[in-house]
Amino acid sequence: MLRAPVLALRETAVNHTDFSQLGLPAALQDNLDSLGYQQMTPIQAQSLPLVLAGKDLIAKAKTGSGKTAAFGLGLLAALDVSRLEVQALVLCPTRELADQVATEIRRLARCLPNVKLVTLCGGVPTAPQSATLGFGAHIAVGTPGRILKHLEQGTLRLESLRTLVLDEADRMLDMGFGEDIHQVIRFAPRERQTLLFSATYPEGIANMSRGVQRQPVEVSVEALHQETAIAQQLFESAPGQRPEALARLLSHFQPSSCVVFCNTKRACNEVTDYLIGRGFSALALNGDLEQRERDQVLVRFANGSAAILVATDVAARGLDIKELGAVINYELTYDPEVHVHRIGRTGRAGQQGLALSLYQANEAQRVTVIEEYLGSTLPQGDLNSLEASLRPVLPEYATLSIGGGRKDKLRPGDILGALTGDGGLSGDQVGKIQVQDQFAYVAVRRSQAKAALKRLNDGKIKGRSYRVRLLG
Q1: Does the predicted TM-score (pTM) go above 0.85?
Q2: 3-class SS at 258?
């Protein structure tokens, strides 16, 4: 499918506008009001009017910009709920991002009657997904490989597709999904709306757009954060002393939550082992983990039962932690755009963020490239001036894993009731509850973890017994 030249709408500052000005269906608008969504973010203000007008779109925006609502509201507004056919398809690079996108679309659609959304990702058997598709769906969200498999098996059909979304398209290309994406699009009708969202704009994105879009409008939000939202600081470490330097940063600043970025899986594992040996609460996130292990790591970090996540860039893609205290670059990236993407995970929602970076003398050129890209000189800190004797702070919560989930009709309220009823824990001793397809996770105050574990193992949830484990 060929396209005409791109119509570019590049702006670095856009006035926030009210969602009520968009003319959304009443049910969607009422739900936005109940969620407290009133003012659009810059990417929403630029892209939503175009999406609602049925235009193809290339949108460049960083993680945390509100892009999911930008395309989610568009595809929901075009949905014909009376037709139980897949009318919208969202492709994501990772299962974690697909789960987050699906969760947000469900939140946006909760006032619409009987919207059916299915998540189709690898790492789990295909048979249950095929069975779910057999009952029909309006929206499918998933990874390219698994979506393609269902299309080839005939369990997923796209004849009625109206909206195709390629979310984090740059990362999908980086991960080698380009051919799968084009194979998926072969099953889609030519007459459709195609929305392409990307954090960066390499040549591969332009090539992809030329093949799948028609007269796309391009929007770009270059400035996601105010300059003062993230305090950056560089620290030079001596050769071979990088692990000790990291421990000193963590001991001095003591962030309540922190992502430590490494460039390789090997470094990720070595750093995690080192920090655990020093008494820090750290978890590794890399491509060697099985899907269930990845799920547990992300749940524990998101619910506050682990303070430090040590991750590679690919593994961390799709993380959505709204209040992240700090980001530490254990190793500087070679790509200044990736540096901006890393540090952009802190300092969100009006919070003050902290971004610390370690480097050695022979890596000074990487610092120069990043500073030139940012257009400013990064402040230099002194490791020797930092307080390193403070003991690591244990996380406030611990996580329990329950051997049942949505497939067993479990809801967060069922788990909360089992923990707090008849002389159990008080409500303020229970933290986040996350229910997945086959497992559920609940955070409880660390001081109450053993009591909560015994209560759930000895008792029942919705009249059934489940195996419960303490993850830490």
Answers
A1: no
A2: strand
